[in-house]
Amino acid sequence: MPASSTRDDFDKYMAPNYSPQQAIPVRGEGSRLWDQEGREYIDFAGGIAVNALGHCHPALVGALTEQANKLWHLSNVYTNEPALALSRELVERTFADKVFFCSSGGEANEAAFKLARRWGFDNFGEKKHKIVSFKQSFHGRTLFTVSVGGQPKYTEGFGPVPGGISHATFNDLDSVRALIDDDTCAVVVEPIQGEGGVTPATPEFLQGLRELCDQHQALLVMDEVQSGVGRSGKLYAYMHYGVTPDILTSAKAIGGGFPLGAMLASDRVAKSLVVGTHGSTYGGNPLACAVGLAAVTTIDTPDVLEGVERRHMLFREHLEVINRKHGVFKEIRGMGLLIGAEMSDDFQGKARDILPLALEEGLMALVAGPNVLRMAPSLVISEVEIEEGMARLELAIERLVGQS
Ligand code: PLP
Description:
By secondary structure, the protein is α/β, with parallel strands linked by helices. The chain has two domains: 7-56 and 302-403, Aspartate Aminotransferase, domain 1, CATH 3.90.1150; 71-299, Type I PLP-dependent aspartate aminotransferase-like (Major domain) (Aspartate Aminotransferase, domain 2), CATH 3.40.640. It is built from 13 helices and 17 strands. The strands form four sheets. The chain has a seven-stranded mixed β-sheet with strand order 4-12-11-10-7-5-6, with helices on both faces. The protein has a four-stranded mixed β-sheet with strand order 1-2-3-15. Strands 13-14-17-16 form a four-stranded antiparallel β-sheet. Strand 2 and strand 3 (40-43) form a beta hairpin. Helix 3 (58-68) runs antiparallel to helix 10, helix 11 (302-326) packs parallel to helix 13 and helix 12 packs across helix 13. The protein starts with 6 loop residues before the first helix and ends with a helix. The mean pLDDT is 97. The structure holds pyridoxal-5'-phosphate. Pyridoxal-5'-phosphate is lined by residues 48, 104-106, 109, 138-140, 190, 194-195, 223, 225-226, 251.
C-alpha cells in the first residue's frame, strides 16, 4: 500500500455508498488501533461485532498463517480439512445437524431464506412460500435479504422486490398471529435486533414464535449474524432462551475478521438442500474455515464466555455514571457485549454526532439507527481499556452536551 493513500482517495476512487470517518487505521492489537499519524484509538466498535477477539489475536494469526502456508482455496469440487473440522465443531456445540458455509451474513441469510422456501415447496407445495419477518430487522443487502429486512429505506428504488414477505412488530406476538398462516414457510427473527436499535427479544416472545411456527408447520429462522459467537455471553443467543431454531445464520464474529458465514440447520430441513440447489465458490474456503475454527474454539470456553457478562456489567456501570452526570441516555440495554444506549428526548437523532467527537478523543464506537449509541467491543477487552474508553466517551459526550 503506497504511504501516500489519503482519505481523499476514498472520494476519488471508491463507490460513494459509504462515508467513512477521516482517520485511516493502519494497525491493531487487542482493543487498540493506530492510524496513519500514529494516533491511538480504543475500539468499542469491533468492526461492527466482528472482531470478537480484538485485533491480531495470536490464536487467529497462528491459524491464518499456518493455513496460508498449506492451502488457500479449492472450491467445492473438493472438500477440505478446515471446513470439515469447523462444521463438526458447530454441529457438536449447537442444535444443528448440518452446516453450509459462505462468506458473509447476507449470504448466510440468502441461503436460509432460499432453504426455507425450498423446504416448504418440497414438503407442502408451491403455496407454502410466505415469510414473516419484523419491522426494524436487518438481514443483509442482497435483494432477498433487504426485502425480508424490516427497514424500507434499504429497498427503496430497488423494486420490484420478492413477494410473499410481511413484517410484524418485534416482541409483539399478536402482530405475528395476525400474519402467520399455513402458507408460511418461515418466521425470521434476530434474537437481539442489532441494527434496529439493540433490542433483545423477550423470552415469552421467542417461546411464542416457536409455538406459532409449530402450529403452522413453519420454520423458525434465527439470524444470529450479530448476536452469535459469544457476543451474548453464550455461543449463540438462542441458548439463553430455551428455544431451538430450525435454521440459524452466523457470520461476523465467526471469522474474527476473516470473511466467513455459515447457515446451520436441522437434518429434517437441510435435506432439501440437495446437490445443485445452492452454492458459493468461496463457501468453506480453507483459509476462512481455519480462522473460523480458531475463533469458535477460543471463544466457546467458560473463560471467555463468563468474562462477557462481567464486562457487560462494567460497560453498564460506566454508562450509568456518564448518564447521571449528563442525562444523555433514556435507556441502556442489550445483552453481553452488544450494548445500546438510547438517547434521551433532548438528544433525539444525535447518536451519530457522538462518533466523530469520540474519534477525536481516541475512541471508536457505533450507532444503531439515529437514536442509539451502540458498542460491540472485543469479548476479551481488558478492564483498563474499558475504563480508558469510557473516559474518552465521557469527553465526547461533554462536547456533545456543550454543542446543544
Ligand atoms: N444479519 C444481521 C443481524 C446483521 O447485523 C448483519 C450485518 O450487520 C447482516 C445480517 C448482514 O451481514 P453482512 O454485512 O456480513 O452481509
